[in-house]
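My current task is to audit a protein record that another person submitted. My question to you is simply how this chain folds and whether the tokens agree. This is what I was given:
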Amino acid sequence: MTTLLGVELTDRPVLVVGGGPVAARRAEALVDDGARVHVVAPHVCEPLADLVVAGRARWSDREVVESDLDDVWLVHTATGERATDAAVVAWATARRVFCVDAGGQRRAAAGTARTPATTRAGDVLVGVVSTAGADPRRSVRVRDRLAAHLRAGDVDLRRRRPAADRGRVVLVGGGPGDVGLLTVAGRRALAEADVVVADRLGPSDVLDELPADVEVVDVGKSPGHHPVPQDEINRILVEHAQRGRVVVRLKGGDPFVYGRGGEEVLACRSAGVPVTVVPGVSSAFAAAAAAGIPLTHRGLVGAVHVMNGTDGWSSAALTGLRERSCTVVVLMGVGALPALVRGALSGGVDPDVPVAVVERATLPDQRVTHAALHEVAAVASARGVRAPAVLVLGDVARPGLLDVPQDERVHAPGPGAATMGA
């Protein structure tokens, strides 16, 4: 039978016997875990030499002797020579020191310990070993399936923390709305959260997947209605973190693209609260893609300008539209659409510049409205266009841009059609 243990090796001596790639992998993993690694081998491969040159491991360029095992906590032997590996295992066993026979990968390993196939999620380390003899391929297959669940955020990764433990804040970009566009890193952050401070936009359905005891604080804003001002949101993040909690600030899109993420980072840092940012898929780019609009297209346009509709036109955006040299993406522009149209026309932009308005991008009820610049405000009003929506202005917004004419389409051969081989 095999007992799986978590062994603390920080600043403890560990012996690695062998100089090949297997020994190098084992030595590097041990060094990363904080062990003081001593490598014994007449010759070493380049990765092992790099560890030694960097001062991360010590190397004795000779054959191993029994006294090399003096005062070590763990031994890995990986020479690939049956007699040498067996001798190291015997020396270790006599001294009651656990020994991993990594040189026996192509034969029945004789060591008293085995290294598990591992995967890490935050501060959780998961290991897999077989209890029916060494079976590394099977362990790796199981490890990979477990890793997929951890990456997907399917496992509650919260840990019990002492009351005096420091909390932290993670700003998570939730993407444009479709839960499938929330990143793996974002899901993992949610799996570690004690508190989630959530916006109205973004993947709100993911909140239903959280454990029942995760506190959800709704700070959602709608056009013209901001019940929780930004200063209050900052206070909520800081206070929960100061109570030792892991706080996820779940935002729509990307925290640093008109998401006030910079303000929240400053608030946390000013209060001495650790804060990290998980990037998200910004609706500035996702909305166009979901509507089949390439923001850049070779031979047509090669630049993109993103702006906030409530701030009005910048000279750079107007210049790009006048010269047809860039695509302009407007966030939070539905309420300001009539004023934006007037400003563009008075700024010399061609009235026939194509415009697309993408409502509720990536969600099942997504809707796209196409019109020329001079008429888009009236068309949008007639269709009842509402926020959240993204405006795309420029030649890439022309309907049918990516349609292939019928006479240019290549038809796949039907069943039974003859094919030519080389």
Remarks:
- The two ends are 57 Å apart (CA to CA).
